[in-house]
Amino acid sequence: MNNSELIRVLPKAELHVHIEGTFEPELMFEIAQRNKIDIPYKSIDEVKQAYNFHNLQSFLDIYYAGANVLVYEQDFYDLAWAYFIKCQQDNVVHTEIFFDPQTHTDRGVAFEIVLNGLKKACVDAQEKLGITSHLIMCFLRHLSEEAAMQTLEQALPFKDQIIGVGLDSSELGHPPSKFERVFAKAREAGFLIVAHAGEEGPAEYVWEALDLLKVNRIDHGVRSEDDPKLLERLVLEKMPLTVCPLSNLKLCVIDDMADHNIHRLLKQGVKVTVNSDDPAYFGGYMNDNFHAIEQALPLSQDELKQLAINSFEASFIPESEKRKWIKHIHAL
Ligand code: HPA
Ligand code: ZN
């Protein structure tokens, strides 16, 4: 079996994907039309030309604008269902999906509309495609602590439908410490904890995510490499990093895929995983990310398998399910 075939047949868990970042231009046009909402593009080509980013913020401005056309429960269902079809194509058998309630509630869309649409797609994906999933609600870190606290309050009645909380949006200038009290409350309520840290921000933000937010996983975390003491701790604690190679390239976190540190981190024993982040904007879904690193870096087949094994080990599924998928991978 060559590497391409191996990537195709490997069962994989996706642990870092923003559902608003899976919004393909074709679906965006369709939903904009039926909701009679103007978008600042004349054609799908024009949309794709706008997807030329030089940092995280230049992407976020366009990403939030795209989400403006999502209004009804059916819109959120359609968005998530389209992503599940991509999962099926890439043999992603389990996914833990981020959503940003504030992007929608701040426009007057009810929290329940967002959650119900996504949840119905998750139920159908399990029934019709055999794909399991969890939802993780992210706080927008460029907004206030108070706004995050209000969002957490809104989520409490739906605790059984949301496995965890995370932290995303503009990293620089918005350290994890800003949300220490919100995450303490979320932990008390029984949510699992993740946070974006060390994407554009420094290794110091990863320390804060570990020590102040008490995360179960770090999203991105690639800047941890700047700090040997931090790397030591990540290895010791088996702390997963949800790495997103194509995202890092598109947002200029790295200049060249050959410089990506996912292989170095893996060799040092860090529990790194491969993820797509915002695949409609960054040029590819799960398998495209695997192909991009496989082509640029000298990854062995055992290492490709280890990345898939890590994705299940780092996931929030029951131990018995983890063992089942890992056994499946060892048998390939
Ligand atoms: N970083 C921070 N916030 C985000 C991202 C990301 O890569 N994608 C969507 N929101
Ligand atoms: Zn992300």
TrEMBL record:
Gene3D superfamilies, per database record: Metal-dependent hydrolases
Domain of life: Bacteria
Recorded GO MF terms: adenine deaminase activity; zinc ion binding
Metal-binding as UniProt keyword: yes
Residues the entry annotates as binding Zn(2+): 16, 18, 196, 277
GO-annotated biological processes: adenine catabolic process; hypoxanthine salvage; nucleotide metabolic process
Catalytic residue positions: 199 (proton donor)
Domain called Adenosine deaminase: residue spans: 11-330
EC nos: 3.5.4.2
GO CC annotation: cytosol
Pfam families: A_deaminase (PF00962)
Residues annotated as site: Important for catalytic activity: 220
Cofactor field: Zn(2+)
Keywords, comma-separated and alphabetical: Hydrolase, Metal-binding, Nucleotide metabolism, Zinc
InterPro entries: A_deaminase_dom (IPR001365), ADE (IPR028892), Ado/ade_deaminase (IPR006330), Metal_Hydrolase (IPR032466)
CC cofactor note: Binds 1 zinc ion per subunit.
Recorded family membership: Belongs to the metallo-dependent hydrolases superfamily. Adenosine and AMP deaminases family. Adenine deaminase type 2 subfamily.
NCBIfam families reported in the protein's UniProt record: aden_deam, PRK09358.1-6
Function: Catalyzes the hydrolytic deamination of adenine to hypoxanthine. Plays an important role in the purine salvage pathway and in nitrogen catabolism.
The name this protein goes by in its record: Adenine deaminase
Organism: Acinetobacter stercoris
